[in-house]
Design a protein that fits this description.
Order of helices and strands: HHHHHHHH
Distance between the termini: 58 Å
Structural class: mainly alpha
Helix content: over 70%
Low-confidence stretches: none
Strand content: under 5%
Number of helices: 8
Length: 195
């Protein structure tokens, strides 16, 4: 019961303090689950992130559900998921009740401008952490960096050109590139070892 309550409170804090969706929450998930509480390893968080992005539903909720299930079974999964969703639900409910009155308050509009900047920084921070961890643990560092730069530039240029591609296609394409490139590099290493 103590673990279930801990999960609820930890994920409530993440859900309450993060604006900007799942990617903005990755930095807090990393801090809370990996660095502070040791609920997950760095590798587990990376794998959860990839799986959560590939499956239906918001990435942060999928991460919360997995972490809760790993630590305390079904009760933990429900507790972590409810903890992640509850603050957002309360906040959105309050905003919907007072939405029209809030639109005319200039200070709120300015606060949200600042929040947008903070969200962008959180997303960049999460991306940098994931890239560092990925590169640190990989024997094919240069190849992974090249793939990351290629996809970044491709998406950036497509956005400038007004072409929008679903994230699903990008994930599938990245998975296919990884399968082809890393399999060929493994075959090369195996060939060198045989000779």
């Amino acid at each position: 019961m103590k673990q279930i309550m801990e999960l609820f409170l930890a994920f409530s804090r993440i859900g309450a303090l993060t604006f900007g969706g799942g990617y903005a929450m990755l930095s807090l998930l990393d801090y809370e689950c990996v660095e502070k509480r040791n609920w997950l390893t760095e590798d587990e968080l990376m794998e959860i992130t990839v799986i959560a992005e590939s499956t239906p539903g918001p990435i942060a909720i999928n991460c919360a559900t997995y972490t809760g299930y790993k630590l305390a079974g079904m009760g933990g999964a429900v507790s972590a998921t409810v903890g992640m969703v509850f603050p957002s639900f309360v906040l959105l409910f309050a905003i919907s009740v007072f939405f029209e009155q809030m639109l005319v308050v200039e200070i709120i509009e300015k606060a949200f401008r600042g929040i947008r900047i903070g969200v962008s920084i959180l997303i960049i921070q999460a991306a940098v952490r994931m890239i560092r961890k990925m590169v640190k643990k990989s024997p094919d560092k240069k190849l992974q960096i090249c793939i990351a730069i290629f996809f970044f530039l491709a998406v950036f240029l497509m956005n400038i050109a007004g072409v929008h591609i679903s994230t699903i296609y990008l994930i599938l394409c990245g998975g296919l590139c990884g399968l082809v490139l890393f399999r060929s590099s493994e075959n090369e290493k195996a060939g060198r070892d045989d000779s």
